[in-house]
C-alpha cells in the first residue's frame, strides 16, 4: 500500500479485499436463416446440411456461409442420421447440469455425405470400446419430445458395421 | 508516410431489429459489395480487421463466427478490435504504414436488438464504483446534456434543431433508419424521457453493418478513379471515471483534431459520430468547425446508430462525398465509450489537383 493517510476513524479498520457485483444480462438470439432451416429439420428428425457452391463441401450445421469461401451456402442436402466417429474424448468429471453417468464419451460424428461433424455423445457401448472410425447412428428422443434443438438427438450408438477406413476420414482428424 | 485511401464503402439497410438474419448473414452482403465493386476477391486483400463486441452478441468469440463471411481460406492475415470499427480502420491504416500490407478490408457490425441495450452498455463502466449502480447509457448522456445546458454550451432549442436537421437530411439516405422530422418547436412539446433529453435527442437502437476497403498509393489509383485520401488520422482517450472529466468539452477530440491536421486547410463537410444531440455541439466545438461546414449530410447517428459500425460509417460517408466531388476536404469523427470518452478524427481529401 502507498503512504495514503487515513482519517482517524478508518485507522485499524479491516481493509476491503474484494467486492461482489453480480451482473446478469438476458439476450434473445436470432438463429438466422440457415440455422433456422437446420433446426426445423432436427425437429422432424432430419439432418440438413448445406452445400457451398464454390468448394462443394457440405457445411454442418449451416450458419449461412461457407467458412472457407465466405459465400452463402446454396443447396440444402438431406444427410442420413448415421456416420462415423472421427474423434472423441472420455469424460471423467461431473459437470453441473449433466445427468450422465461417469465416465461417458463425447464425440464428433460426421454423417455420411457431410464434410463437417456434429458434436454428441456415444452410448450403448462400454466407453473403452469406442474408437475412431466406428460407425454410429443417431438415437432420437421420443417423437413427442422433438424440439428445434440438437438435444433432439439423445446420443449416437454403434451400428455394428465394420469400421471406416482411416483414409476416408483423415481430413476430419 | 504512405498515402492511404478509402477506395470502397458499403453499409446495410439499418433497422431496429434484424429478426431473420444472424450476424454473419447480416455482414456478408456488405463484405461482398465492397469487393465486387472493386472487382477483387479476398486473395487480393492483404489485411483484414474487424470491430465487434461480444456484449452485443451475447456470446463469446462472436467475431470468429462472422469471419465465416470473409473467405478466410487459405488462411488470411487478420485482426479484431472490441471497439467501433473506426479503430479497426486505424489499425489497418497503421498496418499499411508499416509496409506489411497495401490493401485492407475493414468491417464492423452491431446487433443491439438481442439484449437490453441500456443495461448492456453499462457494463463498459468501471466494475467497482459505477458498474454496480447500472447507470443506463441514456441517463449518463442526460447528465452530460444537463452540464452542457447549465454551462451555456447549448440550448434545448439548438438540440431540437440538430435532431430535426439530421433526420431531414436522412431523407436522402436510403440506408437510414429514421427519416424526416417534425419542426423543432413541435419536438420541444414532447415530454423529457431522461431530463433534459427528449426522445428526439437520442439515437435510435439499430442493427447494422458496414465495410470499407483501404489501399495505398498506386494500388488505390488502380482500384478506383476517385480515391478518398486519408490526410490525417489520430485517436485519443480520456479518463475512465466520468467524475474526473469535464463532460461539456472533448479534449480528446480537440487533440486528435490537432494531430490529424483538421485546421491545416478549410473543411467543407463533416460526418460526426455524436449519438446524442448535445454531443454534436461538443464535438463541433472541439474540432473547431465553423458555421459554414456541412454537418452530417447522411443524417448521422441520430438517423441510424448501429453500434460498432457507426463510427466506420462516418468515415465511409465522408469518403463517399469526397470521392464523388461533393466535398474536396472532409472530416470524419468516431466515438466510443460513455459520454464521448474516446474519439477518433480522420481528415479526407480528394485527388490533389482536382
Spell out the blueprint of helices and strands:
The complex is a heterodimer of chains A (173) and B (354).
Chain A: H1 33-42, E1 47-51, E2 58-59, E3 75-79, E4 82-91, E5 104-111, E6 118-122, E7 135-140, E8 153-158, H2 166-169
Antiparallel strand pairs in A: 1-2, 1-3, 4-5, 4-7, 5-6, 7-8
Chain B: E1 4-11, H1 23-38, E2 47-51, H2 54-57, H3 62-66, E3 78-81, H4 85-97, E4 103-111, H5 117-122, H6 137-150, H7 156-169, H8 184-187, E5 192-194, E6 197-198, E7 207-216, H9 217-223, E8 228-237, H10 251-260, E9 269-271, H11 277-287, E10 294-295, H12 310-323, E11 329-336, E12 342-349
Parallel strand pairs in B: 2-3, 2-4, 9-10, 9-11
Antiparallel strand pairs in B: 1-7, 1-8, 4-7, 5-6, 8-12, 11-12
Helix pairs in contact in B: 4-12, 7-11, 10-11
**What structural category characterises the helix and strand content of chain A?**
mainly beta
- CA-based gyration radius of chain A: 24 Å
Give the CATH superfamily of the domain at 4-116 and 205-227 in chain B.
Answer: Thiolase/Chalcone synthase
Strand order of the largest sheet of chain B: 3-2-4-7-1-8-12-11-9-10
**Average of per-residue pLDDT values of chain B:** 97
Oligomer: heterodimer
Q: Quick one: overall form of chain B?
A: globular
Strand order of the largest sheet of chain A: 6-5-4-7-8
Largest sheet geometry of chain A: 5 strands, antiparallel
Number of H/I helices of chain A: 2
Percentage of residues assigned to helices of chain A: under 10%
| Uncertain segments of chain A | none
Describe the structure.
- The complex is a heterodimer of chains A (173) and B (354).
- Chain A has helices at residues 33-42, 166-169, and strands spanning 47-51, 58-59, 75-79, 82-91, 104-111, 118-122, 135-140, 153-158.
- Chain A has 173 residues and is mainly β.
- Chain A has a five-stranded antiparallel beta sheet, with no helix packed on it.
- The radius of gyration of chain A is 24 Å and the shape is elongated.
- The model of chain A has no long low-confidence stretch (mean pLDDT 94).
- With 354 residues, chain B is of the alpha/beta class.
- Chain B has a domain at 4-116 and 205-227: 3-Layer(aba) Sandwich (Peroxisomal Thiolase, Chain A, domain 1), CATH 3.40.47.10.
- Chain B is 33% helix and 20% strand.
- Chain B has twelve helices and twelve strands.
- Chain B has helices at 23-38, 54-57, 62-66, 85-97, 117-122, 137-150, 156-169, 184-187, 217-223, 251-260, 277-287, 310-323; strands at 4-11, 47-51, 78-81, 103-111, 192-194, 197-198, 207-216, 228-237, 269-271, 294-295, 329-336, 342-349.
- Classes of the chains: A mainly beta (173), B alpha/beta (354).
- Chain A binds chain B through residues 19, 21, 23, 25-35, 63-72, and chain B through 18-25, 28, 31-32, 42, 55, 58-59, 65, 67-73, 111, 113-116, 119-120, 123, 127-128, 131-132.
Amino acid at each position: 500500500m502507498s503512504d495514503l493517510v487515513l482519517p482517524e476513524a478508518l485507522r485499524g479498520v479491516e481493509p476491503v479485499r474484494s467486492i461482489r457485483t453480480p451482473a446478469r444480462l438476458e439476450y434473445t438470439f436470432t438463429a438466422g436463416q440457415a440455422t433456422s432451416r437446420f433446426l426445423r429439420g432436427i425437429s422432424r428428425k432430419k439432418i440438413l446440411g448445406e452445400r457451398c457452391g464454390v468448394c462443394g463441401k457440405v457445411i454442418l450445421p449451416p450458419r449461412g456461409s461457407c467458412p472457407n469461401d465466405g459465400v452463402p451456402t446454396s443447396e440444402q442436402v438431406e444427410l442420413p442420421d448415421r456416420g462415423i466417429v472421427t474423434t472423441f474424448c472420455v469424460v471423467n468429471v461431473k459437470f453441473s447440469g449433466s445427468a450422465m453417468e461417469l465416465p461417458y464419451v463425447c464425440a464428433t460424428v460426421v454423417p455420411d455425405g457431410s464434410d463437417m461433424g456434429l458434436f454428441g455423445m456415444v452410448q450403448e457401448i462400454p466407453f473403452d470400446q469406442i474408437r475412431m472410425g466406428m460407425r454410429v447412428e443417431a438415437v432420437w428422443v421420443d417423437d413427442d419430445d422433438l424440439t428445434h434443438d440438437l438435444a433432439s438427438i439423445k446420443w449416437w450408438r454403434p451400428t455394428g458395421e465394420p469400421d471406416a477406413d482411416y483414409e476416408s476420414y483423415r481430413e476430419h482428424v | 508516410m504512405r498515402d492511404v485511401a478509402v477506395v470502397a464503402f458499403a453499409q446495410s439497410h439499418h433497422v431496429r431489429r434484424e429478426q431473420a438474419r444472424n450476424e454473419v448473414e447480416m455482414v456478408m452482403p456488405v463484405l461482398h459489395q465492397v469487393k465486387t465493386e472493386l472487382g477483387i476477391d479476398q486473395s487480393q486483400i492483404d489485411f483484414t480487421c474487424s470491430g465487434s463486441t461480444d456484449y452485443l452478441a451475447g456470446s463469446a468469440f462472436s467475431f470468429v463466427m462472422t469471419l465465416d463471411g470473409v473467405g478466410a481460406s487459405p488462411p488470411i492475415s487478420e485482426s479484431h478490435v472490441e471497439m467501433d470499427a473506426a479503430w479497426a480502420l486505424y489499425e489497418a491504416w497503421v498496418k499499411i504504414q508499416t509496409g506489411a500490407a497495401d490493401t485492407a478490408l475493414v468491417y464492423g457490425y452491431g446487433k443491439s436488438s438481442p439484449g437490453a441495450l441500456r443495461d448492456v452498455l453499462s457494463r463498459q463502466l468501471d466494475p467497482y464504483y459505477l458498474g454496480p449502480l447500472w447507470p443506463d447509457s441514456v441517463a449518463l448522456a442526460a447528465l452530460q446534456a444537463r452540464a452542457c445546458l447549465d454551462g451555456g454550451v447549448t440550448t434545448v432549442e439548438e438540440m431540437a434543431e440538430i435532431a430535426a436537421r439530421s433526420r431531414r437530411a436522412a431523407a436522402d439516405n436510403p440506408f437510414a433508419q429514421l427519416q424526416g422530422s417534425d419542426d423543432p418547436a413541435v419536438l420541444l412539446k414532447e415530454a423529457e424521457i431522461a431530463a433534459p433529453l427528449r426522445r428526439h435527442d437520442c439515437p435510435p437502437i439499430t442493427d447494422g453493418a458496414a465495410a470499407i476497403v483501404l489501399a495505398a498509393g498506386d494500388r488505390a489509383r488502380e482500384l478506383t478513379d476517385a480515391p478518398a485520401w486519408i490526410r490525417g488520422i489520430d485517436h485519443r482517450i480520456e479518463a475512465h471515471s466520468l467524475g474526473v472529466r469535464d463532460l461539456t468539452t472533448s479534449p480528446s477530440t480537440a487533440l486528435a483534431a490537432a494531430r490529424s491536421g483538421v485546421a491545416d486547410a478549410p473543411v467543407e463537410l463533416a460526418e460526426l459520430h455524436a449519438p446524442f444531440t448535445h454531443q454534436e455541439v461538443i464535438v463541433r466545438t472541439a474540432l473547431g468547425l465553423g458555421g459554414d461546414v456541412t454537418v452530417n449530410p447522411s443524417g448521422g447517428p441520430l438517423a441510424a446508430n448501429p453500434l460498432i459500425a457507426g463510427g466506420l460509417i462516418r468515415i465511409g460517408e465522408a469518403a463517399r462525398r469526397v470521392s464523388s466531388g461533393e466535398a474536396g476536404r472532409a472530416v470524419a469523427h468516431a466515438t466510443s465509450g460513455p459520454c464521448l470518452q474516446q474519439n477518433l478524427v480522420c481528415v479526407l481529401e480528394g485527388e490533389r489537383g482536382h
